[in-house]
Amino acid sequence: MQPIVSIRDLCKSFAGVRALDKARFDLRSGEVHALMGENGAGKSTLMKVLAGVYSKDSGEVLIDGRPVDIASPRAAQALGIGIIHQELNLMNHLSAAQNIFIGREPRGRFGFFIDEDAMRTETQRIFDRMNLGLDPHTPVGELTVAKQQMVEIAKALSFDSRVLIMDEPTAALNNEEVADLFRIIGQLKSQGVAIVYISHKMDELKRIADRVTVMRDGQYIATVSMAPTPMDTLIAMMVGRQLTEVENDFPDTSGNEIVLEARGITRGSMVRDASFVLRKGEILGFAGLMGAGRTELARAVFGADPIDAGEVFVRGKRVSIRSPEDAVSHGIGYLSEDRKHFGLATGMDVETNIALPSMKKFLSMGVFIDQAAIEAAGKRYVKQLNIKTPSVHQQVRLLSGGNQQKIVIAKWLLRDCSVLFFDEPTRGIDVGAKAEIYRLLNELAAEGKAIVIISSELPEILRVSHRVLVMCEGRITGELAGREASQEKIMQLATRREAAATA
After folding, report:
1. Does 94 have pLDDT greater than 70?
2. 353-380 in b/e burial notation, b at 16+ Cβ within 10 A?
3. Domain ranges of the chain
């Protein structure tokens, strides 16, 4: 069977850095083809060339066996290629139908007025095709992230797309929403739509993908059938080496100094009477389902959100934390799950991002910025954390997700915080970079840092946490020692609703 898409010997460079080096890829009708590789492997770049976002330097793209030059996203759409980016591109104040047909609204008589009825009918037809129970008139801002993603898929289908590229589509979805997305993917597949699925989540790929192409350092490594290929083989292909599993040999931190204590923290219905202690050299995992209140509790302690009741103690002394600035002054750092919006100034370079929270350190006579010292600090942390960047002068936005995350970590290390909250520290990060982040967390704990890790991935919680606190509906429902914790025990506590807990 002739592939819908064939990509041969594709090359692409940015500012002298080669992102694609003779990359190859092919896609068949009615298949889900996973694209895997570490961050910076070239997956998204390859697909953006196919979607007309980037132009190729050399090589060729064939659609139905014919060479094509895809000069723009509009040209890609005309060829039946749609892309759903990781960051959704919707207007919250417009309805689902208006978002789908923005800029190409059907016109009524004389071509002056938008034909709202025709737009609604056509949107409903696409929703029916997806078996999606959604009113086309609903404002997008009122929808969940999962439903917004469905609107993006509908928008791509409105161009009669035969090829649908999905870049990390489940990054912000819970299990139920993932199941819904997979149902729609199954329907589209049965209708002959070819889907390229970019993800780091191995368990998902095993469930959904027919074939997988692995890339490394901008190059094509191999294409294999997903079902018979062991995970270890795929990981070894991605990283070029076997990853060694770290044994859960957790230290006993029960006698260590308590560096942070929260008592009775309450914030509306999201956090209810939550108390915990954090010890020096300890990694404390916060587990729970979506909406359990883990991030809300961390943000409340960090002063990012106001609290209704509760107290915070740092090294036994009661402190007033009304803002993140207060928290930082007491040695508490917070790495947000949304690193692009809250963790990084993406338009600035590596060294500036690392230095920003500690800028006072780099002032001479309190006025002049010591640029040489900033550069030296940047180089020190690039080396220490193995940040892959051409130089400390590289803009952060041009780096992979894993390296961006390391820069966020570097800036808090430079600020010398003794308590660090890591909120979803490996979201959108490949398996190789994850292993590095885990190793770094253990090193920081061994140095005496006190760490809280919030993660939706239970294997991650189990792998790094010396102790696990589980939340459900804003309450802490249980505590488990790292050695005793299991997915089953965590899930029991994570679903212990109030009625059951008090019964």
Report:
1. yes
2. bbbebbeeebeeeeeeeeeeebbebbee
3. 5-239, 258-502
Neighbours of 122 (CB within 10 A): 17
- Domain pair 5-239 / 258-502, same fold: yes
Give residue 310's pLDDT band: very low, low, confident or very high (50, 70, 90).
very high
Mean pLDDT of the chain: 86
**Percentage of the chain exceeding pLDDT 70:** 92
pLDDT at 246 over 50: no
- Between the alpha carbon of residue 388 and those of residues 237, 242, 257, 407, the distances in Å are 20, 20, 36, 10
The dotted CATH code for 5-239 is: 3.40.50.300
Whether 276 and 262 have beta carbons less than 8 Å apart is answered as yes
Contacts of 333 (CB under 8 A, 6+ apart): 327, 412, 415, 417, 419, 420, 421
Q: What is the distance between the alpha carbons of residues 478 and 469, in angstroms, rounded to a whole number? A: 6
CATH number given to 258-502: 3.40.50.300
C-beta atoms surrounding 350 within 10 Å: 29
In 211-251, beta strands by DSSP E: 211-216, 219-225
- Amino acid identity, position 382: V
